[in-house]
Amino acid sequence: MIQMVDLKSQYLKIKDEIDSGIARVINNTEFINGQDVKDFRKELASYLNVGNVITCGNGTDALQIAMMALGLKPGDEVISTDFTFIATVETIALLQLTPVMVDVDPETYLINPDEIEKAITPRTKAIVPVHLFGQCADMERIMDIARRHNLYVIEDTAQAIGSDYHFSDGTVKKAGTIGHIGCTSFFPSKNLGCYGDGGALFTNDAELAEKISSIVNHGMEIRYHHDRIGVNSRLDTIQAVVLRAKLPHLDEYNNARRKAADFYDKAFANCPKISTPKRADKTTHTFHQYVVRLNGVDRSALMEHLKAKGVASAVYYPIPLHKQKAFQGFKSDPNAFPNTDKLCESVMALPMNTELNEETLKYITDSVLEFVK
Ligand SMILES: *Cc1c(COP(=O)(O)O)cnc(C)c1O
């Protein structure tokens, strides 16, 4: 079976470093907050060119902690996209903030800045753009909207670590380092994944960084002196070992994904029933997922066909957030999301990982095309 991800082959290439690093941590028993965690934070900050990286337990925690650090209060409205993994909006609701979901661009799948602007009310306090599937939302416009309306911006970059965003003045910044806080996940299948759960927050604001460091550790700066309500959320040292081994390969990993995406793009270029993912302006694409739109194709039948051929496929995401049972308490106009509604019915993701070779890719695309024609 050709799986969506292939973590085993990737591991085998860096096995010695990972195995010896893990053995070292077990030997020195620095399981929590060991030297590798500290080193990883510095190495990631240097890669991203950001002032501060604070690691935490997972990407969902990172989002929650970001909103806590910004002092958002129950009733504050937070604008985010309707087309994302639930964690983005779940954390807003968890803190008793009011999630306001908006529609996406039908071709890039990214949050639409015009819709953000329309959704702003006097209660709006923050925007959470999601760099979905690996490319950055239109951060130049989003930051401009945020400045004009005095809003915080929390970037959900769980799917786009390593992506570059190009501003019109020529400045280039890494995804997650543009807003007030960036949040990422090191879930194993993410572009930079560990071997369990992990996450991090990025910020250039030293004061915010201090607050975040305190919140992740029970609101504590001096041991057993608790200055604020916090949480317990940390990256363990064994996960930091894995991430330190992988970080130097991140660009190479992302390039391998782009190469696979280019192959898919070419193979489907002349097939009107398959729309390949559009490259958004001003951003590179790190292809956390390769997601096509099917036009007049029976998606479940195609997925069954692929399964029979030994090719995995998946749907990200089958149900828009505004239709999720968990969000029924938040009133939203059911007709306000035509693009998300359509995408949820028509998108399909193909295997995407760092280990796909041309032979495998050809088998996958041939298998798709023999069904779609
Ligand atoms: C994976 C993901 C998260 C959550 O990360 P976890 O580490 O699984 O908690 C949040 N947002 C997006 C867009 C994600 O893809």
Describe the structure.
- This protein is α/β, with parallel strands linked by helices.
- It has helices spanning 7-13, 15-28, 35-48, 59-69, 87-94, 113-119, 139-149, 206-215, 237-246, 250-268, 299-308, 338-346, 358-372; strands at 52-56, 77-81, 98-102, 124-128, 152-156, 164-166, 172-174, 181-185, 199-203, 274-275, 290-294, 347-350.
- Helix 2 (15-28) runs antiparallel to helix 9 (237-246) and helix 4 (59-69) crosses helix 8 (206-215).
- It is built from 13 helices and 12 strands.
- The mean pLDDT is 97.
- Helix 5 links the parallel strand 2 and strand 3 (98-102).
- A 7-stranded mixed sheet has the order 1-9-8-5-4-2-3, sandwiched between helices.
- The chain binds pyridoxal-5'-phosphate.
- Helical element count? 13
N-to-C CA distance: 23 Å
Main β-sheet, spatial strand arrangement: 1-9-8-5-4-2-3
Using DSSP, what is the number of strands?
12
User: Helix coverage percent of residues?
Assistant: 25-40%
CA radius of gyration is: 21 Å
Sketch the topology as an H/E string, one letter per element: HHHEHEHEHEHEEEEEHHHEEHHEH
* Bound molecule types: pyridoxal-5'-phosphate
Instruction: State mean pLDDT (0 to 100 scale).
Output: 97
* Strand residue percentage: 5-15%
- How would you characterize the largest beta sheet? 7 strands, mixed
Task: Report the structural category.
Answer: alpha/beta
| Unreliable residue runs | none
Shape field: globular
